[in-house]
Write a structure and sequence with these properties.
InterPro entries: DUF4190. The protein is an all-alpha fold. 32% of the residues lie in helices and 0% in strands. The longest helix is centred in the last third of the chain and has 30 residues.
Length: 192
Amino acid sequence: MTDPSGDNDRPAVSYDPPPTAEPAPYAPENYDPPAGDSTVTEPPKPEPEPVAPAPELPPGSFETPAAHIPGTPYAAPGQPVYQQPYPPVYAQPYGGGPAPYVQPPYVPGPPRGQDNALAIGALVCSILGFCSGITAIAGLIMGHVALGKTNRGEGGGRGVATAAVIIGYVVIALWFGFFTTLIVLGANGQLD
């Protein structure tokens, strides 16, 4: 068992770390391949096929990346590689230039989905419900009818109808809370 004080666990000789120095540069070791193994044979390397030199350019012309059309580099084995002839060099006629830009005709896209007028009316009534609670009830009813029409595909404006229904419910809840507070305060005599 060891001594709990830890004095007997320490070595008697102190440890001095070696001095720091620059590490030696890495030099890979020479690799000696294993002795010849009779079971492993390397396949013979094929000799590269000679490639025909490029034909001379016609007098007065020079090679540009767009003017040189190379042949296919993947010919069948044993077949010569053919190159396509150079395209003829055409000069621009006097006074000629690039063709003028012609704007393509306007093609209208598919028609945008029309918002349902009932959904818009429901949103207006729901917002006006903040001032008078009666229009919020009308906006809520109209919003549900407009949502039904959009679900049947009779019109667009699903987002507007949804907003009208949500605002209608919020306004009705606020008015209900307001009148409930008035009734409770009136019953307790706090409105005197």
